[in-house]
Each structure stands twice: as C-alpha cells, then as structure tokens.
Specification:
About 75% of the residues lie in helices and about 0% in strands. The chain starts with a helix and ends in a 7-residue tail after the last helix. With about 950 residues, the protein is mostly helical. Helix 2 packs across helix 7 and helix 45 packs parallel to helix 47. It has 47 helices and no strands.
C-alpha cells in the first residue's frame, strides 16, 4: 500500500511539475527546508514586532530600521568573506545553530523580564538578519544542488515552499497567539530551526553532488568586482538601482505607518501579534494570486515601462488616504498594495527591465543591489523617520507627505529607466548588425520587442534574442521561437531548441524525430534533450528505443542527451545504466568496419562521457586526444572541457597552439568558467610550459567577462617574455572593446609605457650596433647570421612599438590610438606626420616626452647616429649586446645569437652558451650542446 502511494505521488509530481526519477527526495527536502525557514520567520517576526511596538513604542521603529541596516550590512560583508574561505555547509549550519541559541537565550531573558528593552532591540535585529541570511544561503545551496537546466525546471515548484511557509506561518501565528503567550512562540520557532539543521545535513550528505571547484564557482553567485563602479558606468544600472532603492525607502515608510495605526488599534501585545500574523500571510496570499493570474497579462499587455507605474500609483493613492485619514483600514490597504504588487507585477517588470544588461554585469551587480542597496535604503529611511518623528515630533500624516514626495521622484526615475531600457535594447541590436536598418522599438512592450526582433532581425540579432528568451522564458514567445526549427542555419536551429527547452512547451514529436536526423550533431543532441524533457510517461522505453536505434546518428543523439540529462543525478545514472551503455558503445567500435560509422560512435562516446562526467571515462577521453583524426581529437578536447576536471587543463592548453584544434581548445577551457583563471595563470608561470602555449593563454582570458581576467593579463606585463606581453596587451585591448565595464587602472599604465620605451631603446641600441658591424669584412657565414639577427631585432622593435601603443590604448580611446599607430607605420609621409601631430595634441606631458621621440624615429627609413643621440640610446659593445639578448626570455633571439656565436667561433662567446645546457627549451638545449660539442641532455 505504501509503495503504491509513493508511485502515485511520483506520477503526480512528474505529470504536474516535471519532477523526474532521482529528483523526488532532493526536491521535496529542499522545498520542506525553505517552507520551515519561512514558516519560522513568520512565526517569530510578528511576535518580536508586536512585543517591540507594545513596549518601546512606534517612535523607536525608525531607530531600529537604522540599526538593522548597519548590523545587517556588517554581517553580510563578514558572511560574504566567509563564503570564500569556508564550506557553505559549515556556514549554513552555523548560521542556523547560532540563530537557535540566540533566540532561546533572548527568549528566556524576555520571559524572565530581564532587561526587556535591550532584549527586544537585539531580538528585532536578530530576526531581520536571520531573514536576510537564511533565504540567501538556501538559494546558494539550491544552486549547488541543481544545475541550470534543472533549476529552470524545478525552482518554480521549490519556490512554492516559501510561499506556503509564509502563508501557513502567519495564519498559524494569528491563531496560536490567542491561546499561547507570544514570547513562547519564540521557543517554538527555535525548535523548528533545529529541524532545519537536520534537514540541511541530510541534503548536504545525500543530495549535493560532488562538484569540481570550477562547477561550484559557476553555480555560486556572490558579489562581483567593483559593483559600485559598474553601476556608475551604466545609466541603465544606475536607474535600476535607484528604482530598487527608492522602493525600499517607500516600503519602510509605509511599514512605519502601518505599524503606527496598528499600535493605535491594539493595546494587547498578543492581539497585535495575531493581527500582524494574519495580515502578513494575507499579503502573501494576495501577492500569489496576482502573480498567478494578473502579472503576465499586465506586464505582457502594457509593457515593462507602464507596469513600473502600478506599484507607485497604488501607493500614491494609499498615502493620500493616510494623509487625510490615518486609520487602520487605510494603513492595511497601502501596505497590502505595496507588499503584494511589489512581489508580483513590480518584480517581474524590474527583471524584464534588466534584460538588455549583459548577463556578466548582471551577475556581478545583482547581489550588491539586492543586499547593500536594500540595506542602505533601509538605513536612509530610518534616518528620514528619525528626523521627522523623533526630531521634529511630527505625526503619521507628515510621513505621508514625505512618501508622496518620494513617489514623485520614483515616477520620474521610472520614466527615465523606461527610455534607457529602449535605448539599451535598440543599441545592442544595432551593435550586433550595424549594416542593416533597425526596426522601430519605441513604445512597445518587452515581449513585443523580442517578437519583432525575431521576425525582422538578422541571424546574429536572432541569436542574441534567443539567448534573452532563456532569461525570460515567457511561453507566449513559443510560436516565434519554434519557427526557427526549420531555419537554414544549424546554429539558429540548435539555439531555438535550447530556448524551447527553457520555455517548457511541447514540440510536435514528429518534428523532433525529424530533427534527430539533422545533418548537424548539435541540433540532434538538442532535439533529443527536448524530446526527453517533454516525455513524461514511458520515458525509460523511449530512451531504450532510441539508444538501440539502427542509425548511429540517432542512437548517438539519444546517448548524449541522456548523459547530459543525468549529469548530476546519480540515481538516474544508475537506473538508466548510463555508464554501462557508454561501455557498450565503446565495445562496438571494434566491431564496426565502416570508418564514418566508427567516427560517429567515437563522437557519441566522447560527448556522452564528457557530459555524464564519470571519472572512469577520463582515460578514454585522454586516449582519443592522441587519435590519428583531427576531428576526433577536437571532439576529445570538447569532452574534456565538459568534465571541468582540473587534470585536463594543461593538456587542453597545449591544444591552443595548432590552428586546427585552437577553437575547440578555447571553448573547452572557457567551459570551466571564471574559476579557470588561476589555473591558466599557473600554466603561464610554470617554467616547463612551452612559450608557444603561454602566448596563446591571453586569447582565452580575453573572452572571460570578469575583472580577474584584467588582473591576470596585467600581471603578464611584468614578465620578461616580450611576446607574452604583446599578446596580453592585445587581449586587454579586446577586453576593453568587448567588455567596457571592466575597469583598467589607468595609473598602472604609465609605468608600463615608460618600461616599454626603455626596452625599445635597449633593442634599438643593440640593433644599431649589429647594423654597424654588418659592413665589416667577415665570412659569409658570420654575415648571414648577423643579418638574420638584425632582421629579427627589427621585428622586435616593431613589436615593442605596438606594445607601447596598445598600452596607451588602455588609457586613451583604443580605436584612435591604434589608428595613430597604423598611421606612423604608413608608407605615406603625410599620414605619418599627421599621426605624430595627433599624438602631440592628445598625450599628457609625461607620455608625450617618452613616446614622441620614439614615434618620430620609427617614421624614418634610415637609422642614423643623430637619431641615436637624440633618443639618448646607449650603444653597447658586441659582447654586451649578446649578453643582453641571452638574458631575455625570447627563444628565437637566443637561437639567432647562438647561430652568430657558432659562426664567430670565439671561445669567450661559446662559454656564454654553457648555462643553456639545462634549458627547459629543447631547441635551445640542443643548440647549446652543439656549439659546445656535447651530447644534448634529455628533458
């Protein structure tokens, strides 16, 4: 009977909420955990609020707003730092345990009437901080428990937990307060938190997958780099932060008015507790009903701009009522409108408002806006109320006047942010395709704007919008997206399938079956993933039928789709025998005689092994990296990237060098996310890493939208490897072009420019000396070696000049500086002169003094002694020239010097080569041994 009940529950969860095999316990435990957390909060908060207001009076509430803001901001900073050094499990359990201890301790003090005033101040702050931390750490844990695809599918169901907890907790408190003394409910809440600690441990032990540190870094959201600077740099973000901040200020003013009229109506603390409990739950119920039945219609019909006025408009009406009639029903209406509309219509509109902002910037600033902007606004509201109520001794009516004034500012900011949204959306589409005329997106809703872009946009614009559809998976976009399933571009077809996956709509199975035979393998994989997502009954039979399909393209798509679906679901892996099925495909390779069929099976195995992330298949991936076919090697590279395992990083870096594997190696390394940065830095610093590999690393870093990329690339400018410095500068210029929000400290640039100018002069001195020695009567062998060396030095001068200009391009507009550099290198004398004149007008005095003489000398075709003297270049003797070149890290220059030393045949010069017998560079080691007449040492 019990098993039958379990099966019925599972069937219901699968049909209704798409909770799949292997996810039931994880999902239900997570939902129960957040239910209890919010339930506890809604039990304790009405009690503490009622006790505080009854004993201390409503005029002390503004002071509490300020204390909560200061205390919570400090705790949040400590908490954020702790997350970087300690495990989330330990922090989460510690937070709950400390909350239990504090609630119990201060509850006892309150019960015994020991310093009740101080106790209530502390309890009020504790409850407020608990509200911030408990929900925050739960959703961090949820992001570790579920990957992005699972989260999109399951978080709406898990999100029902806090809603149910909020409703049940408040109503329960309202009822219990009539029978139990309010202070006793604090102990009840502490007991519930003990249950949460137990649930936490069960979830961490059984249901949090073993993730690599790269996977954890990808999933955990924390404060980004320089969020304040990012917000200041973007009008759009500035207005968005202002709207959120103003909303918090207004919310606190209304909360004060609501509490004031409530205290006037209820003298008894338990009655006040019951009142607060009932209405807190009612606010949640109304908010849920609006979210379910009205939000999409309002936001979708009237657009993001108009929807933003729903919240301030209703509050304006409520504040006007409170101004003329500061009574209970007016306070309830205003607070009801503020809470319910804020959590439904306004929240959806604000999320849509952030749509044009790049996801990298959003992720870096969201936590800051959600926490610090919220807390700062709370503190500001407290200061305003202290000034009005405690300082000027004004009434609740005065707060209504202040609220109305702030609402006028809110409406003005809403008008500004609506215009900025449209400007951002249009400029992004225009930036993607500058050649085509852009449609008019003014005066349309977000949804219609996306639809119009999908209908009339170019391929690149369509891809951009399809990505945005994943951020706001509105089902009304399904018809617009599904049309691209037959698009001529395989990239568009695959991206459309990916978007539909997040829209959670059903595609005609016959269409998907046709796509399973698509010429493009990515389309095939995405088609099976969609087929698997929308099939709720007989999933096992479906998987088995496709896995055993006679066509290897279809069976391959099924295996890869299954592996990706079960990646973090160990129970599903076991149930569907993922590892066994991959082994069967491996065994089949030896039986097949058709080379193309063998290749398809290899691709199938590699993609499945990479996505499933089963360590037993790592040796298989490594073995295919040595395959005879480049296309198989490329698939093995991608598979290694899918695993996000640290042991593959160095090997993947090696594949950056050959052109035929470079693109896939970059994609594989980028898949590790921002956590790859320290590892790539380590690869570059490793003395055994080939120079060719280190020179390719900046090309990967320039595609990672994080300030850490800037810091690592800037650190490369301090190395002795001139080619690495040049590549780092090119990548910094690319980062500044593609991610202008990533700030580069301009002060650091000046020092590097001066250093590069000195390098240029040193190379110029060596070059001038070698050119002087060329006409000297020497053997043909010496002349040839010296000519090769001077040619190489000339190229190094060009490279150093480019580095100087790219450095300046980090301080001034990069496009203008690069144009000036190209002008100086021009064969047209008039263009060269204009470029120098432009630099003379642009550069600050220090840079002008360092750069202009070099720029002028670079313009000249002949290097004379007058130029050398003008630049104050020291010309070394020949021995010193060779020593300088051998001290650097430029392998090609060293080999050119070796050739000259060998040709000259001087014993003194040959001894300069001896230290290089132990070089990590194989060619340098071999040439040194050859010059000294020794056997080269093996590495």
């Amino acid at each position: 009977m019990l098993e039958q009940s379990k099966d019925l529950i599972k069937a219901f969860l699968l049909r209704t909420f798409d909770v799949r095999e292997g996810e039931y316990q994880r999902v239900l435990l997570m939902q129960l955990n957040i239910f209890l957390l919010i339930f506890t909060l809604l039990v304790i908060k009405p009690v503490v609020n009622a006790q505080f207001l009854s004993m201390m009076g409503v005029d002390q509430l503004p002071l509490m707003f300020l204390m909560v803001a200061i205390s919570a901001m400090g705790v949040s900073m400590i908490y954020s730092r702790a997350l970087g050094s300690r495990s989330l499990r330990r922090i989460s359990n510690s937070t709950l345990l400390i909350s239990v201890i504090l609630l119990t301790f201060f509850g006892i003090l309150l019960k015994l009437s020991i310093s009740p005033a101080l106790v209530l101040y502390v309890l009020y702050v504790i409850v407020a901080i608990f509200a911030v931390l408990s929900t925050s750490q739960f959703w961090i844990m949820a992001n570790l428990a579920f990957d992005a695809r699972e989260a999109k599918r399951l978080f709406s169901f898990i999100g029902a937990g806090p809603i149910a907890g909020g409703v049940a907790g408040g109503y329960m408190t309202s009822i219990m307060a009539n029978y139990i003394e309010g202070t006793n409910l604090i102990f009840f809440g502490a007991g519930l938190l003990c249950v949460c600690i137990y649930l936490n441990n069960v979830i961490w032990t059984r249901h949090i997958p073993k993730l690599t540190r790269f996977q954890r870094k990808k999933r955990m959201k924390d404060f980004g780099d320089h969020p304040i600077w990012l917000i200041r740099q973007s009008k759009h973000l500035t207005y968005l932060a202002l709207i959120i901040g103003i909303g918090v200020i207004v919310s606190k003013l209304i909360e004060f008015q609501f509490s004031s009229v409530a205290v006037q109506s209820f003298d008894d603390p338990d009655e006040l507790t019951s009142f607060f409990g009932f209405w807190l739950s009612t606010f949640n119920v109304v908010s849920l009903l609006i979210q379910l039945f009205l939000t999409r219609r309002i936001v979708g019909t009237y657009g993001v701009g108009t929807s933003l006025f729903a919240l301030p408009g209703g509050i304006l009406l409520g504040s006007s009522l409170l101004l003329f009639a500061p009574v209970l029903w007016a306070g309830i209406f205003t607070r009801l409108w503020e809470v319910s509309v804020k959590q439904s219509v306004n929240k959806s509109a604000t999320e849509l408002l952030a749509l044009p902002i790049p996801s990298g910037i959003k992720s870096q600033t969201k936590s800051f806006i959600d926490v610090f902007v919220d807390l700062a606004a709370t503190g500001l509201a407290g200061l305003m109320l202290i000034f009005l109520i405690n300082g000027l001794d004004l009434s609740v009516r005065a707060v209504s006047i202040l609220t109305i004034f702030i609402l006028i500012i809110w409406i003005w900011v809403a008008l500004k942010v609506r215009q900025e949204y449209l400007n951002s959306f249009k400029s992004k589409l225009a930036q993607i395709d500058k050649k085509n005329v852009q449609p008019d997106y003014s005066n349309i809703s977000v949804l219609n704007g996306l639809k119009r872009a999908l209908e009339t946009g170019t391929e690149q614009q369509i891809l951009y919008v399809l990505d945005k559809v994943r951020e706001i998976p509105d089902k009304r976009l399904f018809d617009n997206v599904s049309q691209f399933l037959v698009h001529q571009s395989p990239i568009v077809r695959a991206r459309a399938l990916q978007s539909i996956y997040y829209l959670e709509k059903t595609v005609d199975p016959q269409v998907l079956e046709g796509l399973l035979s698509d010429p493009d393998q990515e389309v095939r994989y995405k088609a099976f993933a969609q087929l698997l997502r929308q099939t709720k009954e007989q999933r096992i039979n479906l998987i088995h039928n496709y896995l055993t399909h006679s066509d290897p393209t279809i069976s391959g798509a099924a295996l890869v789709g299954l592996a990706e679906e079960a990646r973090n679901n160990e129970e599903m892996k076991r149930l569907l025998k993922v590892e066994q099925r991959i082994h069967e495909k491996i065994d089949y390779i030896g039986l097949s005689e058709n080379p193309e069929e063998k290749y398809l099976y290899k691709v199938m195995i590699l993609r499945a092994a990479g996505h499933a992330n089963i360590p037993a298949f790592y040796p298989i991936i490594r073995s295919f990296m040595d395959d005879k076919e480049v296309r198989v090697i490329n698939e093995a590279i991608l598979a290694a990237g899918f695993t996000m395992n640290v042991t593959f990083i160095e090997r993947l870096a090696e594949f950056l060098v050959p052109r035929e594997t470079r693109k896939n190696a970059q994609l594989a390394l980028l898949n590790y996310g921002v956590g790859i940065l320290p590892e790539l830095d380590r690869v570059v610093r490793n003395a055994t890493t080939r120079a060719e590999v280190t020179h390719m690393i900046p090309g990967v870093l320039e595609r990672i939208d994080a300030y850490a990329s800037v810091k690592v690339l800037l650190s490369f400018l301090n190395t002795n490897d001139v080619m690495l410095r040049l590549e780092a500068l090119r990548s910094l210029n690319a980062l500044q072009r593609d991610f202008p929000h990533l700030r580069i400290n301009k002060k650091d640039i000046l020092g590097h420019v001066i250093d590069e100018c000195n390098v240029y002069k040193n190379i110029l001195g060596v070059f001038y000396k070698q050119r002087q020695l060329l006409p000297v009567h020497e053997s043909a062998q010496i002349k040839e070696a010296r000519t090769q060396l001077t040619s190489l030095l000339e190229r190094r001068l060009d490279g150093t000049l480019e580095r100087i200009f790219r450095l300046i391009g980090l301080r001034y507009p990069p496009d203008d500086i690069i144009s000036a550099y190209e002008g100086i290198r021009s064969v047209n004398e008039h263009v060269r002169l204009n470029s120098v004149e432009y630099l003379d007008n642009l550069l600050e005095p220090t840079l002008k003094k360092a750069l202009l003489p070099i720029a002028e000398s670079a313009m000249l075709d002949v290097l004379s002694k007058d130029i050398i003297d003008h630049l104050k270049v020291t010309v070394p003797d020949e021995k010193k020239c060779l020593v300088m070149l051998l001290d650097g890290r430029d392998a090609k220059l060293k080999l050119a010097v070796f050739k000259l030393i060998e040709a000259v045949g001087s014993v003194e010069y040959k001894e300069m080569v001896r230290p290089f017998l132990n070089s990590h560079h194989e060619k340098i080691r071999e040439q040194a041994a050859k010059i000294l007449g020794q056997q080269a040492k093996t590495s």
